[in-house]
Every structure is written in C-alpha cells, then in structure tokens.
Amino acid sequence: MKPCLALAGGILMWIIDFEASGLTKSSYPIEVGVTNGSLEYQALIRPYEHWTHWSEEAEATHHISRDSLLSEGLDPDHIAFELNNLLVDQTVYCDSVYWDNFWCNALFSDCGMSRSFKLLDIQELVLNSDSVLEAFLDHKRKLESSGNFVLHRALDDARVIHESITLALANRQIE
Fold first, then answer.
1. Residue 66: enclosing H or E segment and its boundaries?
2. pLDDT tens-digit series, residues 69-110
3. Are 27 and 55 in contact (CB under 8 A)?
4. Pairing of β 91-94 and β 14-20
5. What is the pLDDT of residues 104-146, one digit of tens each?
6. Rounded to whole angstroms, what are the CA distances from 28 to 6, 9, 24, 46, 153?
7. Sign of CA dihedral 68, 154, 4, 89
8. Distance (Å, whole) CA 26 – CA 1
9. Which residues contact 172 (CB under 8 A, 6 or more apart)?
10. Class of 5-174 per CATH?
C-alpha cells in the first residue's frame, strides 16, 4: 500500500464514508463519498434487486429515499470500478471501520470485484495520542455544528472527518 502523501507540509490522506439502508446485517450501501482534501468522489448507489432491506429510521437520518436511489443512483459495478481506479494501492481511513468495511465489502463482493485499497479506522491515526484524539473530536464537533456541511451525507461526512483529522495532526506537528 502507498503511504499517506505529504503535500506542502500538510497531510494528504484519503477518507471514505458510506450511507446505508440501515444498521443491520441485511443493510447495504446507498451512497459513498471519498476525499483527500483535493480530489473528491461522491455517488448514490442504485440497489441491486436482492438489496431489499430498508429502514425508515435510516432514511429519516440521511434523507435519501429508496426511490431516489432507483432513479438517480449509479450502477454498483461502475462505482466499485471508479473507487478502485481512484484509490488503487492507497490506505483509506473511515470513522467506523466495522460498518464502513461491511458496506464496502457488500459493494465489492456483490460486484464480484476485489478492492484495490486498504480500509483502516481513523483511530489508527490517533490511538497513541490523547491530545490528537481530543483535538480531532473537538474539530469534528465544531465542523458538524458550523452549518457548512450536510450531516449524514457521505461526501460531507468524509470532508468533516478529513478536515478534523488534518487539523488535529497538524497541531501535533507544531507542538
């Protein structure tokens, strides 16, 4: 895997986030967003016919209807292909590796593809430093309450995570 890239003294890393049809083993990914602070990718995912689980509670959280996925969503095979091309040999971070990995695996396995990138929890970057973890959580809370992001939408959630961890790690380097 390629290491995180440094850019002008800053940290350039990939962050991915998924929205899903619910929080059960029958749920599936409905939206993906990924960013490294410079490049971004976002897509609604049209469900396969066998992806039938739907949680009204999840819809109330992310405000994405199943009908909009059917009419506006992209083919899951196309999305998996694009993610593999964008993220080849990269380490990609997420804020909930259990669920994000579950939905990423559902996407790729149902497409019959192997993914070309490694997925790790953002905790891997903050585990050894209480001050970095505190700074990350503080920045994340501030960004989420700023009104500049649509929460529970994949790309904006990835942007919040990316900006929060970048600021937290940059502060550590200054100290």
1. helix 66-72
2. 999 999 999 999 999 999 999 999 999 999 999 999 999 999
3. yes
4. parallel
5. 999 999 999 999 999 999 988 887 788 899 999 999 999 999 9
6. 34, 38, 9, 10, 15
7. negative
8. 31
9. 129, 131, 132, 135
10. alpha beta
